[in-house]
Amino acid sequence: MPDTAAQAKAKPDGGFKEILTSLTIAFAMALAFRGFVVEGFVIPTGSMAPTLLGMHMRFQAPENGENWSVGPWHYIQTPAGEVPKKIQGQAVDGAISVGVPGTGSPLDGGARQIPMNRSDVPRRSGDRIFVLKYLYQVFDPERFDVVVFKNPTNPYENYIKRLIGLPSEQVALVDGDVFTRPSSLADGSNPWEGEGWRIGRKRERVQRDLWYTIFDSRYTPVYAQTPFTPPWIGDGWSFSGDGVYRKDSTGPGRLAWDSENWPITDFVSYNDKSDEWARLAAGRMLRDLTTVMPTSDIRTLVSVKPDGKGLDAGVSLRTRGHVFRAGVNASEAILEMRPDQDGAAWREIDRADAPALRADRITTIEFWHVDQALWLFLDGALVAGGAEAGAYDWNPASRIAYTTGLGMVDIRHDPGVLFEAHRYSNPRLTWEFEGSPLTIHRAGVWRDLYYQPAVLRVNGHNQSSRATHPTTTVTLASDEFFVCGDNSAKSQDSRLMSTIDPWVNHEFAPGSPGIIPRELLIGKAFFVYFPSLQWRGRIPVPDFGRMRFIR
């Protein structure tokens, strides 16, 4: 018979060895996984806000339930440099005073945001993200990927930005958008007027994650000491305090965006800081960057319920010297554009079959004008236009001329004109309805990323930042990239890097400062696994509700 007593005695020793061996293998695999597959990183600053958050404060407004983040206001000096205080708005520093997003304009002269004052606000840590390492040794990077890389000015630092320029391309940033063409077509005379330029268009799923809210009627303030002025105006409409708009007639009815009091700009609430915005209101420069810029890459939607059959709906956007229009009638959807001049002929962009707007249900009509393309959705489904069928193509010279009225001679004579916000189109947006009384249960406006022109200090002299002026157009070699932060006004990215680390210059010889050699790419950021960590006493509490994939 087997010696069961001996077997029983031997099991603990064998079990311990197996556990130790398993732990050793697991630890080795974890190190290998971290080193070669996936690694976690912490976002330190707000250069990618609101896509990714660095250290920040979080607020929630009782007036409308809006929840948003603002960068730290108050810092302490340490041997390692300035560090945000763990408690913001203490008595020694003064209270935090910010505006509630979606309740007005952050700038003086319009419908002012509802103010919020807070003291002793806890500082939250930046998002913790996962990065797929060495992915780009197998797959080529794609435009608009969010990447982690070694900072070419200091390779001991890791940076995270959005990839906008790819190898063997020439890159121009014009009116906030990305234009590229093959580097083989690059010329030094006047590159923005050259051939072969194409605008960089984002995939739909990426674009949906990048819309930044200007106003959403779902967050209409229901109570506020400061009076709330709705941004939509029009005769024959009534507005209820819960964000619902009503028209009782069957005749034509226009609901226009109040662009004078609610300008559509690239302002980011993360940057809300009273002393800085006081300077912006005066039209001065903020640090090395321009003031808030008008933005015409827009998403707008309405959720409508007609009382009966026969409702026709349309939306028009006047900007860049043109009118862009989308319409939905009983059987089809139409997208068209024309110069903003009396008597100018309409140019049809796309036409497609579409269902009629029904009286027994709410239908959401959604219109995009983004990256020089028109999109029209009904209840989230694309019915006309898109990145290809809805496209119109202008080169950088045409785009800046239509947007500002400036020609290449004007820009070369005075490069500073590209920093002047008043020269850019202030978009005007109007919805039109006819054929039935209706109720609008939701109405909103969003805007796209906007890459600002900026001032770059080089050898004691000011010049236009890279890619934002014809004379600073960037040409990339076969293994070089160009990157920008989503929070353009607060990002030290390829536009503004002024030096190259000697080791990086020796090993990889990038064409100029701001260029990212392929060898410095670490990987693609793909998931926020530990968002907005906040310490409650000695207990770290992540905001698991904001775990998300990164587009």
Write the SSE topology.
Blueprint: H1 4-36, E1 38-42, E2 57-60, E3 67-70, E4 75-78, E5 81-84, E6 87-88, E7 96-99, E8 115-118, E9 121-122, E10 128-133, E11 146-151, E12 154-165, E13 169-174, E14 177-182, E15 198-199, H2 204-210, E16 212-216, E17 232-233, E18 237-239, E19 245-247, E20 253-257, H3 274-281, E21 298-306, E22 312-319, E23 322-328, E24 332-339, E25 347-353, E26 363-370, E27 373-378, E28 381-385, H4 396-404, H5 408-413, E29 428-434, E30 438-447, E31 455-458, E32 461-464, E33 474-475, E34 480-484, H6 502-508, E35 516-517, E36 521-530, E37 534-536, E38 539-541, E39 548-549
Antiparallel strand pairs: 1-10, 2-3, 4-5, 6-9, 7-8, 10-36, 11-12, 11-36, 12-34, 13-14, 13-33, 14-15, 16-30, 17-20, 18-19, 19-30, 20-29, 21-26, 21-30, 22-23, 22-29, 23-24, 24-25, 26-27, 27-28, 31-32, 34-35, 36-39, 37-38
